[in-house]
Every structure is written in C-alpha cells, then in structure tokens.
Specification:
It is a single chain. The protein is of the alpha+beta class. It folds into two domains: 91 residues, Probable tRNA modification gtpase trme, domain 1 (Gyrase A, domain 2); 55 residues. Helices cover 15% and strands 38% of the residues. The strands form two sheets. It has a six-stranded mixed β-sheet. It has a four-stranded antiparallel β-sheet with strand order 3-4-2-5, with helices on one face. The longest helix is centred in the last third of the chain and has 11 residues. It is globular, with a radius of gyration of 16 Å. The chain starts with 24 loop residues before the first strand and ends with a strand. This is Sarcosine oxidase subunit gamma family protein. Pfam families: SoxG.
Length: 175
C-alpha cells in the first residue's frame, strides 16, 4: 500500500539539478519525517532535555512547550504519558537551503533581520513572503524550512525567484 509520505509533492514536477561548489543550493528533502510534539503539563522540561540528547532528532521550537521534531527515519521514542506526538509528515514538507548567499536569499523574503539575531540552532515560525514557514538555522550557511504541503510549490517558486541573483541551484534528495 502506498504511503502519503512516500514522495515529496514536488518530486515529479521539479527539475533535477546538481549542487555547484560554492553556490547557494536548495534541496527538496524527499521522505522527511516531521512530528509535532506537545508535552503534557509538568513534562516539558524533562522531555526537552531527552529530545536534545537524541542524535537522530532535530528539534525546532514553535512556541512554549510546542515543538517540531524532524526524525531520521522513525517516530521519536516518547512516552505517551509525557506528550502528544502527531505525525505531520503527510502534511508538511522539508526544504534545505545552503551556501554562502543563503542568508541573503532568505532575508529577501522574511520580515526579520536574521544576520546576528538568528544563531545556529535557532528556529522560529515566520513568513517567507505570504507563506508560513518554520525556519531553523542548521549551521552558518545552512537553513531548513518546513512548510505545509499545499504551499510547497508556492514556496519553491518564491525561493527560486529570490535566488535568481545568487545563481540558486536546486535538486531533490532523500532523507
């Protein structure tokens, strides 16, 4: 039986490209596992520490005691008495943007001054143009954007337009 998370919604329509050395590059991450995690009252601090220790998870803040977890391949190991965990993989998509001009490209679409105010490890919900995203800074030149599946094509279009002056390359890769 086919799974809704089997393919990125743009996998069949996107033009495949290659990453050029030193270029700003956008990847559509096919097969990303994305979960919403909301701890129950009094469980937040302990659960946060447990999630931060995990090497196979990437944690993004959405709000107080409300997180998005990107997992390598499986559901996070969370006690059902500690938190509500909802698989969002079928409804959200993951993009990775990297390269020397990634920050400049992002700042063309967000209403937040990211340089210096958005250190490595930060994440926040914000708009890119008119599209709501969760933005995470992975390292100095790399960012991950999570968007609702129905807005993936619009986000790709907007990122490609914003990236024209930077020679943006793009491709689909598997998680």
């Amino acid at each position: 039986m086919a799974s809704l998370t089997a393919r990125h919604p743009l996998a069949e329509r996107a033009t495949l490209g290659i990453e050029m050395p030193g270029a700003t590059h956008l990847e559509l991450i096919d097969g990303a596992r994305i979960f919403t995690v909301m701890p129950f009252r009094g469980q937040g601090k302990a659960l946060l520490q447990k999630l931060k220790r995990s090497k196979s998870l990437s944690l993004r803040t959405v709000g107080p005691d409300d997180w998005i977890v990107v997992a390598a391949d499986k559901v996070p190991d969370i006690d059902p008495a500690q938190a509500l965990v909802v698989d969002q993989s079928h409804g959200r998509c993951l993009f990775r943007l990297g390269g020397p001009r990634a920050l400049a490209l992002l700042m063309k679409g967000v209403g937040v001054y990211l340089d210096g105010a958005f250190p490595v490890g930060s994440s926040a919900n914000m708009l890119f143009g008119h599209i709501s995203i969760n933005l995470a800074r992975i390292d100095e030149e790399s960012f991950e954007l999570i968007v609702m599946r129905s807005y993936a094509e619009s986000l790709l279009h907007d990122l490609k337009l914003a990236g024209r002056e930077f020679g943006l390359s793009f491709a689909i890769s598997e998680r």
